[in-house]
Predict the structure.
Amino acid sequence: MAMGQLITRINELSRKHKTVGLTEEELAERDELRKKYLENFRNNFRQQLDNIEWVEDQEDKKQ
């Protein structure tokens, strides 16, 4: 499931929780979606960090 879809469904469940409440199945779904969201977020963030190149490292390679 894409990040946008995860966020949309999490928000739907959040709004429903605030108004009428959630069933046990919906609570379990919400928890699972939150776990998937955090896992995706961490993976994306890790990729960004792994792709950072330090300017100092590039200067050392040129010499």
About this structure: The mean pLDDT is 91. The chain has three helices and no strands.
